[in-house]
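Quick one: ABC transporter permease from Streptomyces humicola, structure tokens please.
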Amino acid sequence: MLRRARELALLPALLVLVVLGAFVNGSFLTEANIISILGSSAALAMVVLGEALVLITGKFDLSLESTVGIAPAFGALLVLPASESGFGLRWPFGLALIAILLIGAAIGAFNGFLVVRFRLNAFIVTLAMLIVLRGLLVGATQGKTLFGMPNAFFALATDTFLAVPMSVWLAAIAFLIAGYVLRHHRIGRSLYAIGGNVDAARAAGIRVDRITIGVYVAAGILASLGGLIQTGYVGAINANQGQNMIFTVFAAAVIGGISLDGGKGTMLGALTGVLLLGVVQNLLTLAQVPSFWIQAIYGAIILVALMIARLTTGKAQD
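--- reply ---
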């Protein structure tokens, strides 16, 4: 119950923020603003989901923020004509979507291969990949902002069902599936076993290497979808898309109860972490707090979350 207290504590915290928001600005509790919070948090939710799965196995993936930029950017370059800074191939959106997902999967597979087969440090490997992919994105786009993609490129963020953006439905379904797998499927139990004690997991017959690489692939695909959602939300792709996003991703995961030591955390906790940060950002915007303070506040939230983790679990994080 002490471990559960860390993630369940976010629910009353969300309630407090909602009440505070109602006092800060009368438009906070309107339907339009609530949908705006959900829509703006959808891309972050997809990336947090991917990072949470990696963290549960006891690994890291810092390169997800660059995947958010480079995967949809290459998809756009395949679609756009040469006159609009594209490759001039004019691929249909369906093929470009497959390419976007494959790019995310390939990045994840490469990261997983280096970490699993070469036994390289996951933090350093993915940090290097973050830098490499960021450079590739700037080079491929020549530092320009890409416009003129077909409307289908923005559909996840612009199309709605029951007045809610499709991106929100997609994120909700992804979290439901991940939560079910982690709780009821042997693969989900294997992730916790690997993160808890990798040697014991091997001894139990779990295919540690295969599952770990698979988690990196899944995280890359989720990040590419998050990038596509972000593209639709912004309406364009610039050479800095996703930059510094990883700090917010870790903030959401950590305050949601995902352990940096591996083997602990739930999708409910990760999702509430995303919603908490979404509400915080919306409140700061409505209160007209300068945007450059937001990252500082996120950092403070991470520190508080780590202290809460220390008190609720009784275990220091290495």
